[in-house]
Amino acid sequence: MDLYYTIVSPPSRSVLLLAKQLGVELNLKNLNLAGGEHLTEDFRKVNPQHCVPTLVTEDGVAIWESNAILVYLAERFDLEGAIYPKDLTKRAVVQQRLCFDLGTLYKNIRAYYGPLALGLGTPGEDVLKQVDQALEILESFLANSKFVAGDSLTLADFAVITSVTVASTMKHDMGKFPNVTRWVDLCKVTISGYEEISKKALDAWKERMAAKKN
């Protein structure tokens, strides 16, 4: 299967981490978004929304939106339901956390730290407050469980961890969220390839910023 991605994209990293955890080999196709490689006619034929990550299966079906890809990989390769529970109630909790990440956590972290990272100025304090409010909700999820959707690693952790690490990398004050900090440390030693993939992302980001300055 082909995966169109960019390592600095948190949703792309979620897919890379899950594939690593499940032992799924992907044919990686890195797109230079700054160079407009996602806007080419060839890629638009694959994905008319021209976004990453995009997975293309062996039979030529293109799947985009990271959560859809995560679910597809889990349904296909996590046969025992260790990562994506078969129990409907547990699965619903995982789905809720995925929706929370997409519609609240990642949305607000990106809204505040995206412009900062790109040198486009500092968003208002109201936007920063929304980041803290989202992290407070995540803190409550983790008050009585080891992981985001229970006491075992699930798809939700793969989605949420890449969002949270954007904030921590950008020096967000995580001291107010001890449960989140504890969970991040647990993910680092539980998710296969976490340190390796995170380092590649950080190195790529530093390289991009250095090139921009020049």
TrEMBL record:
Pfam families in UniProt: GST_C, GST_N_2
Limits of the GST N-terminal domain: 1-81
InterPro entries per record: Glutathione-S-Trfase_C-like, Glutathione-S-Trfase_C_sf, Glutathione_S-Trfase, Glutathione_S-Trfase_N, GST_C, Thioredoxin-like_sf
Q: What EC number(s) has UniProt assigned to this enzyme? A: 2.5.1.18
- Reactions listed under catalytic activity: RX + glutathione = an S-substituted glutathione + a halide anion + H(+)
- Recall the GO molecular function terms of this protein's record: glutathione transferase activity
**GO BP: any one term:** glutathione metabolic process
- In Swiss-Prot or TrEMBL terms, this protein is called glutathione transferase
Which source organism?
Answer: Culex quinquefasciatus
Q: Print the organism lineage.
A: Eukaryota, Metazoa, Ecdysozoa, Arthropoda, Hexapoda
